[in-house]
Structures are given as C-alpha cells and as structure tokens.
Amino acid sequence: MEISGVGFRTLFRRSEPTSRRRSLPLSALLLTGLLLPLAALFAGTAAAQDAYVSNTEQAGTSGNQLSSTAHQAQKFTTGSQSGGYALGSVGLTFNQGESSTGNLTVTINSEDSDGNPGTVVYTLTKPSSLTSGVEELFFAPSNASLSADTSYFVTVEASGSFSSTLRITTNNAEDSGGSTGWSINDKRHFRSGSTDDWGESANANKLKISVYPPLTLPWDTTMTVGASSGRLGYDGFSDFYGSLEDNTLVHDATEYEVRILDVNASEVRLRLGPNPGTSSGWVLEWGGEELPLNSATSTSTFGSNLLYRWDATWLTNNASSLDSSSYQTTVTSGSELTVCIRLSTQTCSGDSDASADATLSDLELQDTSDDSTITLTPTFASDVTSYTASVANDVDEILVDPTTNDDGATVEFLDADDMAITDAHADAGHPVAPAGGADTI
After folding, report:
1. d(CA 439, CA 400)
2. Does the reported pTM lie above 0.70?
3. DSSP classification of residue 119
C-alpha cells in the first residue's frame, strides 16, 4: 500500500476556539500564515460613540424658554475628516423636566444662505421624558452622516402644551478633549414660531455632538452558529437563528449592519444593510475561506439591503471548505466562528495572533504494531510539502507524528477531500487506519 503525501493536509492553528483554520497542502510542513484567526466582521451591539464637540461642562445653569412660541437652534461645525462623520447622538440639557416629549422635535438642519437653520437633514429619536438638569440624548437614525467642514444646526421645536427651558452657557469656551476642527457657534438662534424669521442671541445652548469613530476595515466579530431549514450560520433578518457578538460596522463614515451570513448546500449568503454601493476590494473571511464580494452575485433587496451570493460552483472552485460536501463540517451548529470583512490589501485584525512560524520541525510515520519507523521519500525537510511512503498490505494502523516549530500551534489532519481524518485514539501523534491502495493524508 502506498501512502501519498501529495495533498497531505496539515494545518497549524492556535488552540483558541475562534481561530481561523485554513488547510494548505503539505505534509510536513508548510503553511505560511496558516493560523489566521478569522478576524474581522458583524451584531447586536452598536458601535461606541465619542463626543467630538461639547460645551456641556461650561458654566451656566439658566435656560431659555422652549414652547410652541419659542423655538431654539444651535449651530456647530464639523472637522475635516476625509469621508465625513457618522452621527451618533446629540446631548441637550433642560432646566425643566417633562413627563412626556410627545410634542418635542429635535432635528439636524443644514445651514441656509443667510446663515440660519435650513432644510431638515435628520430627525432625531427623543427620550420618553426629560429630567431637569440631566443631559438627555437624542439619537440619530442609522447611517446618518455629516459632511466634513460643514456647518449644521441642532434645532429644537415644541408644539402643543409642551413647555421647558433649554440650558445655555455663560461663556464661549468648549470642553477639552474635542476633535480637531469641530466647533460650537458662540451664539444661539431663536424664533417665535415655525414660520417666523430666525434671530441670534448671545450665549450658546449647551450641546454635545457624538459620532462614531472613523473606523475603517478590517472589522471582525464572533459568530455563534445557528441552524434553520438546512442553513447554518446567522440570520438576524428573517428566520432569526445564530448570533453575532457585533453586527455593526462603520466604514467611511457609514454604518452597516450584517443581517445574514449563512451557508447551505447551494450557496453562501451575506446580506448588508444599507446597500454599500461600491464594495469593490472588500473580502469576507469566514470558515477559513476568503470570499471577495465582487466574486458574488449581488441583488438589492428590501429597499436598502444588498444580498451577496456565492454559488456552489464558485465555492467548489475557490472555497472548498464551504462547498456542498464540506460546509457541514466547517460550520457546525453551536460552534463559534470568527467573521471578518476587510479590504483586499489588508489582513484581519486577529491575524496578529497567528503563529509567526507555521512550519514543522519534524515529521515521522510509524507502524503501530511494532513501533517501527516508516521511511519518508524524500527525507523530511521543513521546506518540503509532499512525501510518499510504502507499507505492507497487512499494516492496519500508522502513526503520523508531526512536530511544530511553534509550541503554541496545533495540527489538523485532512484527507484528499478536506475532511477530517479520525484519530484512532488519544495517544501522541495521530493514528490513521489505511484503507488500502493509495491513501492521501
């Protein structure tokens, strides 16, 4: 019987359960970068926000009237970050509590040609009630963005019986720690009603503008694999199975949600919302495979969503561990996988944990019946990736015993179809039962 090392699949990876696993042909060695813990992509927890400009810590406890006949607005200007900013929330402080905010509207407005509040850009989500003297947060809608080097207004309008006061400062300073280029205007705007002209008055309204930090790809998260109707992975959009530690990524000042990432016998699916427009150069890493988004077919669905599909033929030719014959081994229900989205020029952030030395220092084969050594051809060397060995037909178990150069790495054994070869027992090395004829390990 001949044991062929051609296709000998060995994989070095660290022992963490979320490590990325990529099998590379090699028998004694190999693997450059083999371990790459799948690092970067998607759910449930919103990205953190940072205060980019604020004057809420400045002196001043008095307030100006806010009612159906007294509207307020405060101008602010953004910095020069390329690509703009992803708006998170606005903080305002009121001097009079209100049990209901039903008749209160807070918006982000553009600046018109006269330097006054212009068109409404975003309407913010308000808290259910207001507490006197407490900074209240008004949240921007998903994907709200602010252009760089641009002035906007936070406009606060009341209607009906709503009545409160909006706290102002007594100086023109801003709080320390703000982002470069951001500012709050020294004056506030006011008007008597929604159709009246705006006027200016000294002393700014107390204001805090928080945005999502300028994150760029790569982005990663941990998936707990779920199962439904033959699909394995995560669906937070329709069937709701599996979970992601974080499904929100921000790139170029736009926030995206990973709403589906799963696989079945016919395809891998990735749904992003909103439609990222051009995603050329984006790569999904999952299950130890690299899936360029521009290699998938994409379809706009449910308005702002974009669904990417890699079909069975593409997977077989380019990502075999996720194809119809292997995906159930690669993606198992209840397991944890790392997911990453990156640019083609990047590596995933978790890759820094990969072994710097993904080679073997030794490889031995033994006949377990008498512990005799089986000769490898050619002689072992760390830069050789294919070996052959011949044994008699009555040999029923062979011990494959590799030694890694990196003590923190482990080895995985796959057959010619990238399927795991069962360890006969938990001894040192990896006992394999030959099937007869030519066996590829």
Report:
1. 13
2. no
3. E
